[in-house]
Amino acid sequence: MGTTSDIKLINEDGLRLDGRSADELRPMKIETDVLARADGSAYIEWGGNKILVAVYGPREAFPKHTQDIDKAVVKARYNMAAFSVDERKRPGPDRRSMEISKVISEALSSAVMVNQFPRAEIDVYIEVLQADAGTRIAGLTASSVALAAAGIPMKDMVVGCTAGKVEGQVVLDLSKEEDNFGQADLPMAVLPKSGNVVLLQMDGDLSVDEFEKATSMILEATKKIHKIQRDALAGKYKAIALERSGE
Amino acid sequence: MLVSHREAIGEHMVKTREIVFPGDIVQAEGTKPRNGTYRNSDGTYSSCYFGTVQVSEQFLDVVPFSGIYMPRRGDKVIGKVIDVGPSMWVVDINSAYNTLLHINDTPWRVNPGDLKRFLGVGDYIYAKIMSVNEIRESWVTLKDVGLRKMEGGHITSIAAPKIPRIIGKGGSMVNMIKDATYTRIVVGQNGLIWIDGAPENVMVAISAIRMVEEEAHTTGLTDRMQKYLEEKKGEIVGNNE
């Protein structure tokens, strides 16, 4: 954001660099139970993003001073691999990843039934293997799948998507170039059943009308993403049930 | 502006063995939602797990596919001693929280400070949950029929929510496995299973348990298990046939 370029991000037909229309999502694929040691896990490919999520717990919170006597704490850790971006990223936590870890933890806490597990912690490790704009939302979307796969009680799934402004036009699900050279980026996550917003950030400027348009686009898109999450979770079990009933 | 996705999620009557997701509305004619559900502000009930629906005569439960064990009073569990204190043992029961066994809750006469003679780190016990408090601290007891220290045998574990399927109606499934493999099996409510017998037979029993775990959400499992155990008969080291 903030930088300018001569590349035309949207052509005369209203199509974007990768040929998508303004309200089209990038291709998305989610897999569950990819890690045998974790209590729950998920792998998401969303456009060029490749993210692995592992969930552990609930287990007794450690160190002990982080325990909460009447609820569980959700500890999400967002981490980018050194090779996830064009220029080598210096490994380890930095200002950006700590902020993202915090907002993801908070978003997940509002879905997980934390009151059932006093003094416990639920660890969510989000490892970004390849980044291509919208990693926080992709990580969060995969996290809620991994939590569900781990059998952790939740009020609802968490579904996220981004929208933004590119060449004065509101578009859905920004790609890397649109994120870098666009005018605004708006990541948002909701609980699809109640419509409660659990994560909302904005980089750049949007007018009130543009904001309204962007959020309604995101809400429309979360329905599709929610469907993909559910299909990913059910896949394995449906296959076994079908196979056995056919015998 | 912010509309909910109710219409996309659907609000139909659910059936037994149907797969549901966190937040899905669950309802069935003439039943009251019970375990694994929560009440919405509008009076409907939603699932809190990714799992299957279990509709009985009066109640509707959601059984998750996986998840940890939560201690409940009266449950009989298998636990592993992980620490020995001056008057208590700390026992890992495959849950988010460890549990405690006090010397007064054992059938032995234990002098304080002399606990290691009875149970050491790494020993397994079959114990009953005596009490659980609001912050999920729990205490177990060995003072009841059948409760004891586990000597010998093998330990295997499955996801705690699938334990009822291993046991089956009135113990039918576990008894079938026991009879077919000539093993002694103790099933803990917490997902740990103790098996004793000839090594070959234990292997067959474990593979049978794995099969139940994998197919816990399907119907007609008992019949398939019968067939499976029939096929495996050749691998069993029998003591009568």
Question: What does this protein structure show overall?
Answer:
- The complex is a heterodimer of chains A (247) and B (241).
- Chain A is α+β, with helices and mostly antiparallel strands.
- Chain A has four helices and ten strands; from the N terminus they run ββββαβαββαβββα.
- A five-stranded mixed sheet of chain A has the order 1-2-3-5-4.
- In chain A, strand 2 (40-46) and strand 3 (49-60) form a beta hairpin.
- Chain B has 241 residues and is of the alpha+beta class.
- Helix content of chain B is 19%, strand content 28%.
- Chain B has helices at residues 6-9, 163-167, 172-181, 199-214, 221-231; strands at 19-20, 32-33, 37-39, 45-47, 51-55, 59-64, 76-84, 88-92, 99-102, 124-132, 138-141, 148-150, 154-157, 184-187, 192-196.
- Chain B has a five-stranded mixed beta barrel with strand order 7-8-9-11-10. A four-stranded mixed sheet of chain B has the order 1-5-6-2, with no helix packed on it. In chain B, strands 13-15-14 form a three-stranded antiparallel sheet.
- In chain B, helix 3 (172-181) packs parallel to helix 5 (221-231).
- The longest helix of chain B is centred in the last third of the chain and has 16 residues, at 199-214.
- Chain B is flat.
- At the A-B interface, strand 3 and helix 4 of A face helix 1 of B.
